[in-house]
Each structure stands twice: as C-alpha cells, then as structure tokens.
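Quick one, probably user error.
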C-alpha cells in the first residue's frame, strides 16, 4: 500500500511534509501547505489514523481504523476516487 499510495499522492502535486516526523507518512500540497495528507499509527488508542484535505474546503477529514487492511483499502479509495 505505501509505495503505490505515495506515488499517487506525489502525482497530485504533494511533497513530503518534513515538519511532521511522527507518521508512517505525511505529505503537503506544494501550493498550499495547509492541505496535508497523513497516515499514522496512534499508539495511545491502538488505531490507524488517516487524514486528507476535503475538496473545495478549508478542512481536513480524519478517520480511524482498527486494522491496517481496512485503512489501506480506504486510503486507496480516497486517492483513486476523491482527492483532486
């Protein structure tokens, strides 16, 4: 999931977010650093956390998953079908 997801993110004009080091990966839009895509394991709640910018909004959407498989399927769906 990581390599294919990251390739899709980069093709959508996102770059590595060097300011956020505690994630599995984190990217920010080249033109607007407030738009960020983040995927991480949250040890305190034992869940995967995925956040992405909503299209045509100033907000990010965040969702939690119990398993890596569930998270991976959702991340792929968002990157293929939603994120501009």
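Nope, works fine. Designed sequence:
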């Amino acid at each position: 999931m990581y390599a294919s997801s990251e390739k899709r993110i980069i093709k959508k004009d996102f770059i590595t977010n060097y300011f956020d080091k505690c994630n599995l990966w984190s990217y920010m839009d080249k033109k607007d650093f407030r738009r960020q895509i983040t995927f991480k394991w949250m040890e305190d709640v034992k869940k995967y956390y995925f956040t992405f910018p909503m299209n045509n909004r100033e907000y990010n959407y965040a969702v939690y998953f119990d398993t890596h498989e569930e998270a991976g399927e959702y991340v792929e769906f968002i990157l293929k079908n939603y994120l501009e």
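The mean pLDDT is 90.
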